[in-house]
Amino acid sequence: MTPGSLRFEGREIPIEVGDTVASALFRAGVRTFSRSLKSRRRRGLYCGTGECPNCMVTVDDVPGVRSCVTPAGPGMRVERGRGWPSAEHDLLHVTDLMHPLMPVGFYMKTFVRPRFAWPVAERVIRRATGSGRLPEDREPTRGTSRHLHVDTIVVGAGASGLSAALEAASAGERVLLCDAFPIGSQVPPGPARDAIRALEARVRAEPAIGILDRHAAVGVYDGPTVALASGDELVQAHPRRIVLATGATEMHEAFPGNDLPGVWLGRAASRMAGLHGVQPGRRVVVVASTDEGLEHLRTLVAAGVNVTTAVVPAAFVDEVPSTAEAIADGELVSARGRGRVRSVIVRERGQERRLGCEALVLSTGLAPRDELARMAPDEPVEVVGDAASAGTVPRVTGGYLCLCEDVSGRDAEQAWAEGFRSAEILKRYTTSTMGPCRGAMCGRALTAFASARSSEADRESASRTTARPPSRPVALETLARSVHEVIEKRTSLHETHLGAGARLGWSGGWKRPFAYGDPREEYAAVRERAGLMDVGTLGTFLIAGRDAPALVDRVFPGRVADLGPGRSRYVLALDEAGYVADDGVLCALEDGSYLLTSTSGGAERMDARLREWTHRLGLHVHLLDRTSELGAILVAGPSARELLEPLADDPLDPASLPYAAHREVAVAGVPCTAIRTGFVGELGFELHHPRSRGPALWSALMDAGEPVDVRPFGLDALEILRLEKGHLYIGQDALPDDTPAKLGLDRAVDMTKDWFVGKAALERLAAIPLGRRLTGLAFDGGPPDGSELRGMPVMVGDDLVGRVTSAASSPALGRSIGLAWVRAIDGQIPAEGLRVGDAVATVAPTPFYDPGGERLRG
Amino acid sequence: MTLRIPCPNCGPRPHTEFMFGGQERPHTANDAGADFARVFLPDNDPGSARERWFHALGCRTWFELTRDASTNRIG
Predict the structure, then answer these.
(1) What is the arithmetic mean of pLDDT over B16-44?
(2) Which residues are paired to A823 by β-bridges?
(3) Which residues of A touch B71 (CB under 8 A)?
(4) How far apart are CA A198 and CA A178, in angstroms?
(5) Segment A729-761, tens digit of pLDDT
(6) CATH topology of A393-477 equal to that of A486-538+629-727?
């Protein structure tokens, strides 16, 4: 790294080789790194290992960055998050003095009454909390999501993890080794780091071990699956076995003054002095009761730190360097000072002593990081190394139990007094362990607190808390990597539409033209001359094989046995409860097979349904989904035949190709299946053709249609056209529990058939009066654009009786029309007195337009 | 997060590739009474049951498996 400087709240701060953001700031004299969540107390460097929330700053507009484990880089912009006007001089610090007014759970107790005051209070509270501000104009970053399948995953690449990986690999397993940081980077130079380097070399030489450093394991799930998050990817690992070598943090203890800047955990202090050459303070008191603590003491002394006093167990006294006074078996009582540590009170043989100092370094035990193991108790998880150790029980005598959520010992006492008497519900009430440290600091303190107050019998159940993902903070952006990008389906005519100036939008997973210009002109072209529509989005299926007739007879409730070759019929698809799931057009082919078209959005479910019943009924059917290989163009309007005949090699006259018939024809040299349909209510030919020929066919049709002034039309015009015919979109006009009767589609059901999917349900339902019915409505008054009525409630007097599902201004009728479901009142569907907003609604029989269907049969 | 479903064609795959088809109960094509009970009166017992699954984002095959709804264990 090239030393340079970073920019901290307007100041240039020099950085040195190997600096973290925190060490650079600390060297420059920064002592307050953040303000606490509620009481706005000053917080300084504490754990030094990226666990606690104290060192979190905003780096280059990204809030919540742990400065103690983030390498400093030249040009970085660093700011402290909380604080008004600044973290150094935070006026909201008065909240610390008002602590009695803000007891634990205060947000559930205060600001509740009067009710109208809450929105104001909420705004103030929201502004006062949080740890930084998210940039609002930042582009989301791109990243990847991938799945890895291995035999064993080892989480944590310390000495235990590296050994476990080697062991598994030598047993012939494929191993994934992951760590939140580069291997060995968090270990200060010395014998421990040398040992890790030696193991690392062996691991890197082992081809069966894959290494993912800078990937934090954030959760263990069923499967088992382990989620690994890094800055630019989310990995879902699917191992057979999980080895957790997540190590341990130094124990966080709660005593008065424990959160003052200048109170350090041993690792942070020895790293600051040993690695970065910065003294944690001019006079330092060390409290050490572990071997690691002694090591930290030696590191500090070797780095020239003036350790005035070391409080150690009697057995360690001889190990204390002679420059420091050793206090054997002393008990730490409290840390004192305003805004930073000035002195420490230690009890020695019953006597309290006050020791002046600038820093208090604590190394009093280990807290295993076992959250991942507690997430998935039923999964094959093995915990090794320090993470498997029993750990030490922390003392809880006051101060702050939980640094992230600002939960003091007093808060915990109060919650206990209020009846929250186990670690689990204390956690939920106080939100301790739910902050950025995810319980790494406070989890054991909370457990110790609850355990000490529980009876022997309750102790185990009262003190156990569950762990939930994520075990480390993860950006939502990273988690969203696993959300697959939306697939945009396009027809072969996509470019053609864009070239014609079409306005495209989403419809059923496709990008489709809504209009090319004025939808009313497109409408007029279809009603008076001819229009073209790209309907290549329709699902198309070939149903073939010995049992094809049996399958269609059972899946569709209508009569299809009498459907002769060359004929087509509208079909409904029901689910087993008799509810309408989808619709389509079934065409019988010469060889006993069928061509089925389904709705654009329902194609995949139609495919699943047909396969399901083939499977469940044990039929011999070949199903071919041709949706993506076939395009389709609808030619509709009174001049449609006139337009097509010069292009077609085969006769299209009403005798050769009547309504509800289909046949193979070549149009402009393109082989097509032409289906006579009438969704828009005019003479119509649906030309299903090989997808690749779509653009050629479209331009041939546009050219041939020039004499009749043919127009392409989009979904906006279609909405008016189909509504005038009273044709419904299942997805828009039907509710999930609509039966054919409720939709007025009884004609598509033949109850005399032996069996079809949903028949048993319809038989039962036939005995029950209709609770509601889809009804055609004609409106008087209301908005000029009738489509604004869609979604509005239907009222009779003050009673809400229904909802408008589709509406449009009808040029043919000169008024607004719509479809609405209307509820029965006293067994009758009301026909009078209906109102939708300002509009008076009249029940009108559908179709509104050309009720006899002469036009579409032409 | 990931329940792995053993597809008879494709092997074990994440459940996100599959569509759940509900509990499998014996199906008789011509008995309306049994049909009604099958659709509207499900057992919903915790524990093991035969279920139908569809490999929607794979081979598009329907198949049955036995899954314990309280532990997610398959087989």
Answers:
(1) 78
(2) A772
(3) 378
(4) 17
(5) 988 999 999 999 999 999 999 999 999 999 989
(6) no
